[in-house]
Every structure is written in structure tokens, then in C-alpha cells.
Amino acid sequence: MFIVELSFGDEPDRLAARPAHRERLQALHQEGRLVMAGPFSDDSGALLVFDVPDAEALAAIVAEDPYYRTPGVAVVGQREWSPIIR
Hints:
Elements: E1 2-8, H1 12-30, E2 34-39, E3 45-50, H2 55-64, E4 73-80
Antiparallel strand pairs: 1-3, 1-4, 2-3
């Protein structure tokens, strides 16, 4: 599993790009590749948990979604994670 942490700025492009991004997240969830995702309560960023086999699979997911390159969205962390309780 991998976690991705995003940081959000005030750029309006981010909000315009969010609906398409959320549709992609729903599809990834239905495919079993996204466990959970959501913004922090202060909307300063978000956390996403992916169930993918390796960093290359995660990189492909991020590369396919233009949201991660949208002004106002920054990937600030990306780590492999080994949960002990699921």
C-alpha cells in the first residue's frame, strides 16, 4: 500500500479540476486500487491510500490524472505503508 499526501493552494484551477479527479478516484476505488481518500477538514490538502503492488503502479496512477499537476495542487509526500490492521 502507498499513501499520497497533497497540499492545496488557493488557485481556482484546483476547484475546477476537482470533479474529474473525484470521478477518477471513484473508478480506482471500484477497481480496488484506491482504499480511501479525502481532504483534510481545513481543506489545506488531502490524503489518499492506494492498494497497488509497487511505486511504478502508483506513479502510473498519478501520471494519468492531470489533477496532480494542476496549479494549487502539490504532492508533498508519497510513501509505502504497511498497515497492521485493515
